[in-house]
Specification:
Blueprint (H helix, E strand, L loop, with lengths): L1 E6 L11 H4 L4 H15 L2 E6 L3 H10 L6 E5 L8 H10 L3 E5 L8 H4 L9 E4 L3 H14 L2
Bound molecules: 1,3,4-trihydroxy-5-OXO-cyclohexanecarboxylic acid (DQA).
Length: 143
């Protein structure tokens, strides 16, 4: 099974971005954790980070033939990007939404996810473990 992992805007700053909220794990460390767990689960992952909406959509298109599932943290786009929502719907790939923080317990604008309706599941509020749970979900439930 091939799993595409997409990190949205500002997640390249993980480790030094508001560590009280997002923790001290860097994006590189997070991707390494994902690759190690993927190997244990006998699945393949490709991890990418993009800051721009169009770049995320292009990435989804470019890897759609390779991927069997998508794990995406759309970051701030979660709350308003109908373009990313439509791109996920167009892919017809099982998708899982991930957040490091618990967006349902933060500012009102973060409680809304326009991405959720096009995803099979969502894992949030557990830092890097949210991603690892999403990976396990894909490996075990979507096979
Ligand atoms: C986030 C939550 C979003 O509201 C925020 O814009 C992010 C990160 C998270 O992982 O908790 O950039 O998606």
């Amino acid at each position: 099974m091939n799993i595409l992992v997409v990190h949205g805007p500002n997640l390249h700053l993980l480790g030094r971005r508001e560590p009280r909220l997002y923790g001290r794990t860097t994006l590189e460390q997070l991707n390494r954790l994902l690759k190690t767990r993927a190997a244990a689960l006998r699945v393949k992952v490709r991890c990418f980070q993009k800051n721009c909406e169009g770049a995320i959509i292009d990435l989804l298109t470019a890897h759609s033939a390779w991927a069997d599932a998508l794990i995406i943290n759309p970051a701030a786009y979660t709350h308003y990007s109908y373009a990313i929502r439509d791109a996920i719907a167009a892919l017809a790939l099982p998708a899982v939404e991930v957040h490091l923080t618990d967006i349902s317990r933060r500012e009102p604008f973060r409680k809304v996810s326009v991405i959720r309706p096009v995803c099979a599941a969502r894992f949030k509020g557990e830092g890097p473990a949210s991603y690892l749970k999403a990976l396990e979900y894909c490996a075990k439930r979507l096979k």
